[in-house]
Amino acid sequence: MKMLTTMVLVPSWPLVAAALGVGLAVGILAALLLSRIRKRRKAAPAQPMPLAVPLVGRLHAQGQRQSQQDCFSVSPEDLYPTHGLLAVVADGMGGLENGDAVSQTAVSAVMNGFYAQPEEEPRHKLLRLLTEANRAVNRMLGPENLGGSGSTLVLGLVQEERFYFLSVGDSRICLFRDGSMFQLNREHNYRCRLELNAVNGEGTLEEAQSHPKAAGLTSYLGMGQLAYVDQPEDFVAIRPGDRFLLMSDGVYNALTVLELEQYLSLPAQEAAEAIGKAVEEKAWPGQDNYTAVILQC
């Protein structure tokens, strides 16, 4: 009969100690890594909140003119997530025939084009809207009347915490930030051309500013092919509290920069109403139509 033998395995204490050491080291390393991850999470800056829909202030008055040749529009708030917020101001050329119809045609074309295509690069979108507005105005006037009437056009678009703009004519787009107002666009009038000539040694700045045709537009909707378009290659990065002001010349010819800065510190609609009241109180003879849109971000 064969005997069964039982083998008893005796642990090797050096191996056990080594295994325990490796496990302890792995545990310590994991704890250190977890601690670092937690510290990084705590130290990481908070992600900026998406920009809320800008508050809008509106001003639109006839002044002492026989008709209202300014026109403006602002896109609906509910389109902001998909389209951004668009503001447009158009100033029909004062004293010319159909100035009111021209500005209305321009604004209508801009807004219809804006609603049609939400997914589009912002700068390209503004150029497309300008093209459609100018085409609509030229078509309305007809080939025989090109240059006989026209309109300025300024567009301001708030999208993804950025402000994009485009302008033709002498309506203005300004930024109010930290208590100061800055003009963003360049005007297309004869005065600006004469001032540039003066800088280059042709005439003087005084002559440029006092020239009888200084206010004449050198680029405007309705002239056929546009002579100038002002659109920067970059955008304005929006800061909380920024205000963007789009206005016709009836506003900035009536009030000084200091006066506008004083009113722009108010909430958007209050600012618009204060500007309107100030223009009325000035009571300038022959006060032009005056229109302003304020976007408070």
From TrEMBL:
Keyword Plastid annotated: no
A GO MF term: protein serine/threonine phosphatase activity
A Pfam family: PP2C_2
PROSITE patterns on file: PPM_2
Keyword annotations: Membrane, Transmembrane, Transmembrane helix
InterPro entries according to UniProt: PP2C, PPM-type-like_dom_sf, PPM-type_phosphatase-like_dom
Designated name of the protein: Serine/threonine-protein phosphatase
Source organism of this protein record: Candidatus Faecousia excrementigallinarum
